[in-house]
């Protein structure tokens, strides 16, 4: 993953009308996946729910994986900056990892769908995955006070925890607790 990547996802230079359309599509995507699940999700149904033509939806999102990865990206990107003055690094790291682990955990259908979508191989998903990975790394490094070996190790622990929860082996809440424990082990 390159540290020189631009931090904005594709389609950020939209007219207000286009931005509104994309916003409606992402909101409709959340509602639709909650109702239909990943397997039942289609761009056509999302477009219908958003009140736009399917062709319009496809101009913004090439697939349901692209849409779902965009939804995750938007949620991640909307998080407030890490407060580097908020307590010791250990506490900041535990808080940031908990925040990341629980980002979509309150919406089980969305969480499962985002996990499946981000494993997609299409170019738009790949690009968003790079943005997501860079943002996650930046948040962990900010909490750690820099690009330390401990921060990198915790980043790897986070990804492993998210795959385990995403596959349904455990809950995101349990993984958030496990990550807090990992911070204690790694930062000692």
Secondary structure topology:
Blueprint: H1 16-40, H2 43-50, H3 54-60, H4 64-77, H5 89-101, H6 108-117, H7 123-144, H8 149-166, H9 172-187
Helix pairs in contact: 1-2, 1-4, 1-6, 2-3, 4-6, 4-7, 5-7, 5-8, 5-9, 7-8, 8-9
Report on the architecture of this protein.
With 188 residues, this protein is mostly helical. It has two domains: 16-73, Orthogonal Bundle (Arc Repressor Mutant, subunit A); 82-187, no CATH class. Helix content is 71%, strand content 0%. The chain is elongated. The relative contact order is 0.14.
Short description:
The protein has 188 residues and is mainly α.
Mean pLDDT level: 91
Give me the oligomer status: single chain
Q: Compute the number of strand runs.
A: 0
- CA radius of gyration: 17 Å
Which descriptors would you attach to this protein?
about 190 residues, mainly alpha, Arc Repressor Mutant, subunit A, 2 domains, 9 helices, about 70% helix
């Amino acid at each position: 993953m390159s540290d020189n990547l631009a931090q904005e996802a594709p389609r950020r230079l939209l007219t207000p009308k286009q931005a509104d359309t994309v916003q409606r599509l992402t909101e409709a995507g959340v509602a639709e996946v909650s109702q239909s699940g990943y397997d039942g999700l289609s761009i056509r149904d999302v477009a219908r729910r958003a009140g736009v033509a399917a062709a319009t939806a496809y101009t913004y999102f090439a697939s349901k994986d692209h849409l779902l990865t965009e939804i995750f990206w938007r949620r991640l990107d909307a998080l407030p900056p890490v407060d580097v003055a908020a307590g010791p690094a250990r506490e900041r790291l535990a808080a940031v990892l908990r925040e990341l682990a629980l980002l979509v955990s309150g919406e089980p259908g969305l969480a499962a769908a985002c996990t499946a979508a981000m494993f997609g191989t299409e170019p738009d998903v790949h690009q968003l995955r790079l943005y997501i990975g860079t943002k996650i790394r930046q948040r962990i490094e900010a909490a750690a006070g820099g690009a330390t070996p401990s921060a990198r190790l915790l980043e790897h622990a986070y990804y492993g925890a998210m795959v385990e929860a995403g596959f349904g082996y455990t809950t995101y809440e349990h993984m958030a607790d496990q990550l807090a424990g990992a911070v204690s082990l790694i930062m000692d």
